[in-house]
Amino acid sequence: MSFKLIKNYRQSGSDRRRTGSDFDLQPTLLGDLIELRPLRPQDFDALFLAASDPKIWEQHPESDRYQREVFQRFFDGALESKGAFAIIERKSGRIIGSSRYCNLDPTNREVEVGWTFLEREFWGGNHNRELKQLMLDHAFRFVDRVVFVVGENNIRSQKALAKIGASFLKKAQLPGADGTERTNVVFVIAAKSYRAVDLGAQY
């Protein structure tokens, strides 16, 4: 597979890495199968269509996110984050999911990748593999670590993260969409370990 960064990338050397403060949280990333571009307000209907399958959210702490009102909160938060993407299948041109960069820590050279979902037909296959590689390749040009925060009961995502080289870091009590505290599990992957593993698993 070949990957291209469409904009916001000028390097004076192919191996030169910039500082964390240079991190562009919303580039446009192009792979063979998918394109990631900044999420736009007019994407709501298409993204909600992709998200309206209850099985996508059955292990998620917010398991009712397939409902329009609940998804609206998710979508509004994605726009406010200024790090969210629409994931577009290049063959059909349609939106099939979303992900985002958030909680950038330039001092510690760390960023979070999360809030990711794909239509179920793209789980565990080449589209999902390409999504991981696009986002992690971009992140590791600027930071040394990527963290992932998943629900304590989201075993599917936890197992998949382990398969791409992510290690358990800690449990954390974080507020949910309704304001109540929920137990989450934090995983971390370093640039070195990422390059040493196969990226075929879904998370």
Would you mind describing this structure in some detail?
The chain has 203 residues and is of the alpha+beta class. It has a domain at 4-144: Aminopeptidase (3-Layer(aba) Sandwich). It contains 5 helices and 9 strands. The protein has a 9-stranded mixed β-sheet. Strand 2 (29-30) and strand 3 form a beta hairpin. The chain is globular. Residues 1-16 and 199-203 have low confidence and may be disordered.
The largest sheet, given as strand count, sense and whether it forms a barrel, is: 9 strands, mixed
Based on Cα principal axes, name the global outline. Answer: globular
Q: pLDDT under 50 segments (min length 5)? A: 1-16, 199-203
Number of helices: 5
Which range does the strand content fall in? 25-35%
Find the count of extended strands (DSSP E, 2+ residues).
Answer: 9
Assembly state here? single chain
Percent range of helical residues: 10-25%
Mean pLDDT: 85
Q: Order of strands across the biggest sheet?
A: 1-2-3-4-5-6-7-9-8
Rg over alpha carbons: 16 Å
